[in-house]
Write a structure and sequence with these properties.
Blueprint lengths: L11 E5 L14 H17 L3 E5 L3 H13 L8 E5 L4 H9 L4 E4 L6 H11 L4 H9 L3
Parallel strand pairs: 1-2, 2-3, 3-4
Helix pairs in contact: 1-2
Length: 138
């Protein structure tokens, strides 16, 4: 990241832990280890003046991001949070209520149902949030 980022050519990154099952040789497997490295990467991005899209529904990562943003006094226009529509709407509202930018990913088009079904199979914990999003406004 540092080799590619310059003031003349600033980089934007979407930082996301992902939900895909990957081999241990290329991916961290333990929750704590994944979160630790997520925040380490975010710290590099914020410290170096990159524009990160902080893509997470995980409260500890949001709280860790807040601490790093405060530590480096990062202006609100130099980062954004990103979330999948329908997942943790109360967390999304909380982030926005603090004045932070929020980009919401909304699957649409011919393949939206196949995509959403695949995501549910990959992460069944999301099912409750998605079902609520279908029937509850806001």
């Amino acid at each position: 990241m540092r080799d590619l980022h310059t003031k003349e050519n600033p980089l934007n990154f979407r930082l996301c832990k992902g939900i895909y099952v990957e081999p241990e040789e290329i991916a961290y497997k333990k929750y704590e280890e994944i979160n630790e490295h997520f925040l380490e990467d975010l710290e590099i991005m914020l410290k170096e003046g990159m524009y990160p899209g902080i893509a997470t529904h995980d409260i500890p990562l949001v709280e860790g991001a807040y601490k790093l943003i405060d530590k480096y006094k990062v202006p609100k226009e130099n980062f954004e949070f990103q979330m999948l529509y329908g997942v943790t709407p109360s967390l999304r509202k909380s982030i926005v209520s603090k004045g932070h930018r929020m980009r919401v990913y909304v699957p649409y088009g011919e393949q939206w149902f196949a995509y959403s079904t695949r995501r549910l199979k990959e992460n069944p914990k999301m099912a409750n949030d998605i079902i609520k999003a279908l029937f509850v406004r806001g």
